[in-house]
Amino acid sequence: MSSALAEDVAIPDLEAYRLQARTWLADNMTRRVGPPEHHEVEYYTPEVIAAGRKLQRRVYEAGYAGISYPKAYGGQGLPVQYEAAYLEEAKDYVLADFGILTGTTFGVCVPTMVAHGQPDFLAEFVPKVLAGEALVCQFFSEPSSGSDLAGARTRATRDGDMWVLNGQKIWSTYAHLADWGMCLARSDWDQPKHRGLSWFAVPCDSPGLTIRPIRQINDTSEFCEDFFDDVTIPDIYRIGDVNEGWTVTQTMLVRERGGGRPIDAKAELHPGPLAPDLVELARRAGTAADSTVRQKIARAHTIDFVGAALSARIGELNRLGRLDAGSAAYGKLFKGVYDPIRARIAVEVGGPGALAWDPADAHGPDTSLYYLNCRIMSIAGGTNEMQRNGIGERKLGLPREPSFDTGKPFSQVLRDATNWTGKPNT
Ligand SMILES: Cc1cc2nc3c(=O)[nH]c(=O)nc-3n(C[C@H](O)[C@H](O)[C@H](O)COP(=O)(O)OP(=O)(O)OC[C@H]3O[C@@H](n4cnc5c(N)ncnc54)[C@H](O)[C@@H]3O)c2cc1C
Question: Are 14-134 and 138-245 equal in CATH topology?
Fold first, then answer.
């Protein structure tokens, strides 16, 4: 991660650093047996999160959390290659697992906060994040603004050195397990919609904030709806300049859509094993010798390899500081399009056992759940259609979508929408 802070940091030799990390991991962490475990949403309880916090603290105290974060904020101030080297060494060890909060905290929200937040706030807040004490969820979407993120109607009213937030957020993943949320709110209703927005870091235990999990199709509660009733926070929690929230949003969207993770591009370009999850599924289903099944597994392997290559390329653009929201959209769109295809392949490979299983079989529901969850990436963080719009407008130079509200004060947009008759103005 890059930072505007100029810091005097001694840069160690990369290979020596890697060896040091390897030794520390071997001496202090537990090596994982088998491939990384995938856990369903319900696995993540306050107890599991607490166990993760302990592991995270151990890593932080050894200086391996926030390797590329500024020293002033509790990191090591090293180039991103050092983080990639550590992650490569650590990939076979049991590390803190906060589920999706790992990505929203370390991949999206906190890097965005570091890029735009107030130094005094960051100096206190980021070390807590790196030590596993502050996990951050996203208070972005609202019932009336998802794709149209700039249409946020949560109201931020200034009161001296404080801000008072009122409104509703929705689809906030794991908000019920998070410590903080990064919240988009409208701070000026008389500006055009992209110009009257501000971002805030909000403690989840703030008086007036009610966080309610939503029951979903897969019988879990991954998301929450969040009600802000006079939630009062100090100005130092503001992220970015007042009414300049759209600039912060651009940083956040690049992170959200694929630029969040340091990647060793060369390491990612190996084809890797043949879709191990599907090979295992075929073995369990007794279909591994079926030539049609083998072709399907080969197709999934192609998807995996192309996805890894694209992800490595996007990671490299990110490392070079050349990643924009338009380029990041390619990676997001790839997942949105191919996750459903791969999940369908899994159902076909698994045969009837993928759809009905012995309740005693702990892995019985896995394929069905995979299928039910396969649309996530086509919606979360911006739908496939929005990625296509972004690529068309930002990368291919196609004309922008027609807009009726870009230049109008947002309060007037709402008034006009309320009075809209569907008939042309005379
Ligand atoms: C698994 C998951 C996790 C999520 N986690 C979070 C979270 O942690 N925090 C958070 O704030 N939100 C979260 N979201 C919400 C997510 O960001 C929104 O669902 C998404 O932005 C779409 O918004 P919407 O649901 O309001 O759909 P809408 O914006 O109402 O879109 C409905 C349909 O219209 C299409 N559409 C809308 N506008 C256009 C356009 N201009 N051009 C072409 N097509 C268009 C869309 O593509 C879509 O098909 C999550 C969603 C999912 C599925």
Answer: no
pLDDT of residue 423: 67
Does domain 263-395 sit in CATH 1.20.140.10?
A: yes
Ranges of each domain in the chain: 14-134, 138-245, 263-395
Which pLDDT score, from 0 to 100, does residue 387 have? 95
Which residues, judged by CB distance below 6 Å to any ligand atom, belong to the binding site of ligand 1? 137-138, 140-141, 146-147, 171-173, 223, 376, 379-383, 385-386, 389, 401
146 C-alpha vs ligand 1 centroid, how far in Å?
Answer: 4
Residues 234, 239, 241, 244, CA torsion sign: negative
Mean pLDDT, consecutive 10-residue stretches, the chain (426 aa), reads: 65 95 97 80 91 97 95 93 92 94 95 97 98 98 95 97 98 97 98 96 98 87 95 98 96 79 58 89 94 97 93 84 88 96 97 91 88 92 94 94 85 86 62
- Is the pTM higher than 0.70? The answer reads yes
Tell the CATH superfamily of the 14-134 domain.
Answer: Acyl-CoA dehydrogenase/oxidase, N-terminal domain (1.10.540.10)
Check 47, 256, 280, 401 and give the catalytic one.
256
- Determine the distance separating the centroid of ligand 1 and the alpha carbon of 149, expressed in angstroms: 9
* pLDDT value, residue 2: 45
Index of the ligand 1 atom closest to the CA of residue 173: 8
Mutation to probe ligand 1, out of 104, 136, 141 (largest number of atoms < 8 A from CB): 141
Atom of ligand 1 nearest to the CA of 382: 21
- pLDDT at residue number 153: 97
Predicted local distance difference test score (pLDDT) of residue 401? 83
CA angle 419, 424, 426 (to 5 degrees): 95
Distance CA 141, CA 223 (A): 11
Q: Has 256 been annotated as catalytic? A: yes
Q: List the CATH code of the domain at 138-245.
A: 2.40.110.10
